[in-house]
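In response to reviewer comment 3 from the previous cycle, which asked for concrete evidence that the modeling workflow produces usable outputs, we include below a single protein chain processed end to end. The sequence was submitted unchanged, and the resulting structure tokens are shown without manual editing.
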Amino acid sequence: MDESNMPLASVIIPTYNGEAFIREAVGSALAQTYPNIEIMVVDDGSTDGTRKQLEDFIKDGRIKYVFQQNAGPGVARNTGIRNTSGELIALLDHDDLWMPEKIEKQVRYMLENPRVDIVFCNGCCFDDKRKDELRPVHDVSEKFEGLDFFEMFDKGLQTLPTAVVFKRRAIELTGDFINGIDGGEDWDMWFRMAAKGLKFAYVVDMLFKRRLHSANMTNSLTATKAEYYRLSYGIFEPLIKNLSKKDSTHVKKRLALNIFISARKAMGGGNFKDGVHYGLKAAGFQYKYYFKLPGLIVRYLRFMLRRKFGINQ
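The workflow returned the following structure tokens.
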């Protein structure tokens, strides 16, 4: 790539008590093949040795570092964006990693498609205890290349902060990340960007590694509660009202599926009340799920029979 024509990319890494992961995350940002980059770590009130892990990076100027009182990842990202100057912004969670060519490939896509404002990519997951076992986040083909946001949502493609590069103008048009949405401030942002008419795209290359471990914010919620609240009342349901019919259909289709999965999990675990509630909610988004409600009752009855007769499977 011709360095003289490359826009500056600002990498924002929010961290809170990330001493176990932060150095590796920063290292993956420093190893990028993209030539025009600045890295900002926003320490969101860490009380462990996070700062100590970064001392040499800070001292030799390879990264910028800001400490703030604990306010949550949304506020930390806002702080990082305000304290950087890149035309492009890339987000990296402190427990995730980037492939060396990640930013380069996403920026190239933007340069080849100048109307695109936000680019997501595919990646892989790994268990912190088994780092060599990589699993694709999505099994995708080239047909997914270039999807807009609501098509991505419909197909269940993960739009993780670690996977994104976006133009600064996108955040200037949309406003800051909002905290206090139970881990869903990123989804809220993408919806608001989409509502502003900003253009999204998805590249199928696996360009990041998502670390799965016990301290993940997502893992701190029970599966049913996380899926239901983050994919319904918590974020998306209030936003659907402002969407076009086409985009609303994409969103409702995915919400119905995820909420029905929550219903199945609830019934399969003997929680009849939540199972019925989630099942009806799914049917409210897509009528076809009314016909699947009897199957939920069967799952609940199977659970009760197994419990009564002491059957484990």
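The chain has two domains: 3-219, 223-309. We consider this sufficient to address the reviewer's concern, and the full set will be provided in the supplementary archive.
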